[in-house]
Amino acid sequence: MAAIAYTVAFDGVEARLVEVQCSVSPGLPGFGIVGLPDKSVSEARERVKAAFGALSIAMPSRRVTVNLSPADLPKEGSHFDLPIALAVLAALEIVPAESLERMVALGELALDGRLSPVAGALPAAMAAAEDGRALLVPRACGAEAAWVGTVPVLAPQSLREVVDHLTDRAPLPRAAPGELAEPVFGADLAEVKGQERARRALEIAAAGRHHLLMIGPPGASKSMLATRLPGILPPLSPQEALETSVIHSVAGLLAEGGISRTAPFRQPHHTASMAAMVGGGRNARPGQASLAHNGVLFLDELPEFERRVIDALREPIETGEIHVSRANAHIRYPARFLLVAAANPCRCGEIADAARACSKAPRCGADYLGRISGPMMDRFDLRIEVPQVAIEDLGLPATGESSASVAARVAAARALQTARFADHPAARVNADASGRLLEEIAPLDGECRSLLALAAERLGLTPRGYHRILRSARTIADLDASPAIRQPHLAEALSYRLPFGRPD
């Protein structure tokens, strides 16, 4: 007797359909799994046997062979337990085989037959919807998978409930989607005292998703400013929320099936490895850059990161994707994020104070910031110096705008960009525009062209720097509700590209 169940294998954030074929044939008793399984999948036979024992189901005194097809696709993860168990039950004629052919199943089996949650329920639901099948997942994953409304999602708590459903003894109800997570912003931009120029740069960065680098002494509010950036970002669109949630689902980070429309904010420590930042490791999992997709990636103490880790971000900054290549895996992860970085002007951070600076000043400043490569530095649209706030100013009442008022301007600028790029699916914000599209959205009059030509000569702009200035100027004009880029908009964009330490 042979039977087929269906599940998925993950290729990056994409779920690919897998046939679980089971054959029960005469021969010496045994239970074998073939089809390029890893260790966790091979161990499924012991969990399946124990779960069957808990349900008083005896394994047959025959040869049981399970094949995972396609055989050349690597299979990893404990979510193969449930489809393997169902395929065996169908081969033993305990559950009807025709019922399994209409659904996709995934879940980890406990030794007593309970179903434990697994990662990747959301992309699995999308794969099931594309193939016109129902989805069977553990109870804890039901709320997450049910967000894909076009697929019936069943969420049993145990293998016994699955058997009762398939045999029509106790049909399972459809799972309901989880609650939409509400944004919680405890920090307000109004709490930052002074730093008007940094606040303005933060607003421009949020409006057009322009990468921002802040350099200043310790305690100058760099981290304080960065952590308040999510409070001025607009909510994610439904498409963006789904894209982000799929990545978090694969990484096992969706709490209680709740999908959030709040832009993610990731802050890896400067000791983060290459695999932790861009993805990889033994199973080629998504890294911090992908987890920050459609949100903010904040790198505090940027020069303290390994240089190769920083330079690894150059590709996703340009393309919005990360390609992880391993001997047995070639995976693409989306990684379109807003990069915000902060750094001290030197290792000791006191280069501006001759009385407190180290003995290597001022050479230490150039050596320290020199850890950031030129090509990486060129990819920051906005580069600002954040001065120290005077102690006497800290006791004064805060006079800056609140996050709510800044967020309203950012939302209005984003709305202009949404309408502008409605016919360009590859671009969503000004930072995505390039080539002919950038020329269309950022035309310059004669005065602006003369100013930009002069600045390019004096600053030694690269073509990349030239285009990034145009994008920033377009965003500044959007914040001003101006249909065209005027000279003040371009001048402000140029001011954020001046070399550090240069007064003009």
From TrEMBL:
<dbReference type="InterPro" id="IPR027417">
    <property type="entry name" value="P-loop_NTPase"/>
</dbReference>
<dbReference type="GO" id="GO:0005524">
    <property type="term" value="F:ATP binding"/>
</dbReference>
<dbReference type="InterPro" id="IPR020568">
    <property type="entry name" value="Ribosomal_Su5_D2-typ_SF"/>
</dbReference>
<dbReference type="InterPro" id="IPR045006">
    <property type="entry name" value="CHLI-like"/>
</dbReference>
<dbReference type="Pfam" id="PF13335">
    <property type="entry name" value="Mg_chelatase_C"/>
</dbReference>
<dbReference type="InterPro" id="IPR003593">
    <property type="entry name" value="AAA+_ATPase"/>
</dbReference>
<dbReference type="Pfam" id="PF13541">
    <property type="entry name" value="ChlI"/>
</dbReference>
<dbReference type="InterPro" id="IPR014721">
    <property type="entry name" value="Ribsml_uS5_D2-typ_fold_subgr"/>
</dbReference>
<dbReference type="Pfam" id="PF01078">
    <property type="entry name" value="Mg_chelatase"/>
</dbReference>
<feature type="domain" description="AAA+ ATPase">
    <location>
        <begin position="208"/>
        <end position="390"/>
    </location>
</feature>
<dbReference type="InterPro" id="IPR004482">
    <property type="entry name" value="Mg_chelat-rel"/>
</dbReference>
<comment type="similarity">
    <text>Belongs to the Mg-chelatase subunits D/I family. ComM subfamily.</text>
</comment>
<protein>
    <submittedName>
        <fullName>YifB family Mg chelatase-like AAA ATPase</fullName>
    </submittedName>
</protein>
<dbReference type="InterPro" id="IPR000523">
    <property type="entry name" value="Mg_chelatse_chII-like_cat_dom"/>
</dbReference>
<dbReference type="InterPro" id="IPR025158">
    <property type="entry name" value="Mg_chelat-rel_C"/>
</dbReference>
